[in-house]
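for the recovery benchmark. tokens below, seq after
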């Protein structure tokens, strides 16, 4: 399976199964529309006849010979060697990550919030330190022989439960040597309650901090309002800058926002954040059933153009020496994720779980409170192994729309929670999100190609 596309004059061909990406010329791109496996050594007569008005016969034959060489090398029209891995039963795999909902409360009232303004529709609550410690005991046991464990402090707003966060971290650290574990703690925060003490603690203990901000002041404050109805931009931006300024450069952080139908020209929001000095960014398309905010399919051409525009801004910034990272443009073509992550994505429901303030266990943070997805509790353990098995069995080959998709090994079938929210089925892809993901992948590959071409130009003088 191959996928070819052209962006800003650069012609690219992606070989799905091998992961090879080829920069080709116009003739090779045209030739690919005439050939399909198995290829023979001789260029198809139809191609020569059809293309002779635009290219010389010798040129066509030479281009075909080069494509045939790629085919023989296994980097064009390669076979699928992954389907057997998809049949492996991972329902008994170690749990390696946990989203700890330390707060089902929030001091913002974001219009697009999937968590019902912080309480997930289950009532406002703060997790006690005792519950957090039981959750850590639970994941130590369930992680089996796995050494590295990730715990994300989440809400609502987790800074509203900082006493619990601190005790959980200290408790986990105290158990690391005894159980041969290493915790990677992270937090997602809106930043309203950041002060010097909290900043110091997060920078000392959190391997990654995700800071929620939507872009320009007017964009952010339209969506991310305080309880009293005011904007949050001027409240949190100075605090975010202070946290990042004091943070060790070896520790991760991302400024993460959401765009909706109200701000489809999101490149301006990304570049506004860059101009504010933020250099590690993510801006996600909203997934919601709210008709005022949901992205409509008729907006997709505009959004595709925005991603292309952002790709050019990304390249220009790097060329000027003031580059920034954009999460969806960061693709590793040399190795990439392991085979099971390519097939099954985040591991929600069997390798990754979420725990509520009351100790209930769900497949991930976005499934919390959804009927039919309670898989157990800290008290009783996993009581719905059937749900766990359903998540473990779901992969790009069980999803009909994914099995034949060129991008399947990049997106791994998309988000199960988004699929369920929009389609009522964890295995049925959310179409607008799927198409936007493909466009982001194309832009990421285009960026890699442009960087490779510019590197070659420098080498060749």
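predicted aa per position
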């Amino acid at each position: 399976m191959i996928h070819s596309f052209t962006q800003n004059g650069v012609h690219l061909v992606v070989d799905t199964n091998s992961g090879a990406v080829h920069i080709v010329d116009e003739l090779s791109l045209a030739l690919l529309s005439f050939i399909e496996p198995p290829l023979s050594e001789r260029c198809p007569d139809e191609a020569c006849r059809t293309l002779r008005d635009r290219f010389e016969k010798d040129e066509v034959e030479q281009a075909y010979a080069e494509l045939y060489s790629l085919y023989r090398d296994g980097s064009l029209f390669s076979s699928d060697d992954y389907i057997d891995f998809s049949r492996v039963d991972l329902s008994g795999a170690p749990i390696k990550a946990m989203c700890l909902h330390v707060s089902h409360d929030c001091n913002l009232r974001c219009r697009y919030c999937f968590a019902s303004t912080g309480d997930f529709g289950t009532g406002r609550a703060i997790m006690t330190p005792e519950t957090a410690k039981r959750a850590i005991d639970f994941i130590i046991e369930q992680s089996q022989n796995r050494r590295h464990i990730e715990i994300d402090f989440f809400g609502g707003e987790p800074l509203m439960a900082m006493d619990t966060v601190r005790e959980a971290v200290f408790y986990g650290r105290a158990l690391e040597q005894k159980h041969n574990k290493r915790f990677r703690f992270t937090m997602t925060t809106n930043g309203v309650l950041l002060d010097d003490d909290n900043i110091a603690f997060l920078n000392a203990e959190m391997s990654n901090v995700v800071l929620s901000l939507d872009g320009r002041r007017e964009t952010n404050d339209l969506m991310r309002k305080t309880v009293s109805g005011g904007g949050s931009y001027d409240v949190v931006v100075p605090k975010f800058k202070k946290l990042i300024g004091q943070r060790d450069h070896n520790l991760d952080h991302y400024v993460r926002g959401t765009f909706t139908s109200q701000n489809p020209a999101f490149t301006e929001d990304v570049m506004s954040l860059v101009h504010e000095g933020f250099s590690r960014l993510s801006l996600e398309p909203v997934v919601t059933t709210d008709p005022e905010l949901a992205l409509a399919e008729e907006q997709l051409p505009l959004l595709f153009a925005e991603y292309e525009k952002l790709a050019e801004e990304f390249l220009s910034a790097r060329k000027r020496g003031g580059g920034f990272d954009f999460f969806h443009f960061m693709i590793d073509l040399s190795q990439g994720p392991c085979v099971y992550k390519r097939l099954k994505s985040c591991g929600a429901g069997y390798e990754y779980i979420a725990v509520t303030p009351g100790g209930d266990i769900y497949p991930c943070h976005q499934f919390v409170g959804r009927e039919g997805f309670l898989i157990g509790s800290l008290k009783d353990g996993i009581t719905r192994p059937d749900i766990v098995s359903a998540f473990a069995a779901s992969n790009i080959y069980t999803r009909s729309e994914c099995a034949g998709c060129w991008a399947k090994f990049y997106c791994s079938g998309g988000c199960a929670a988004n699929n369920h929210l929009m389609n009522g089925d964890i295995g049925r892809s959310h179409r607008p999100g799927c198409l936007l993901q493909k466009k982001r992948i194309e832009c990421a590959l285009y960026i890699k190609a442009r960087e490779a071409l510019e590197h070659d130009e420098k080498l060749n003088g």
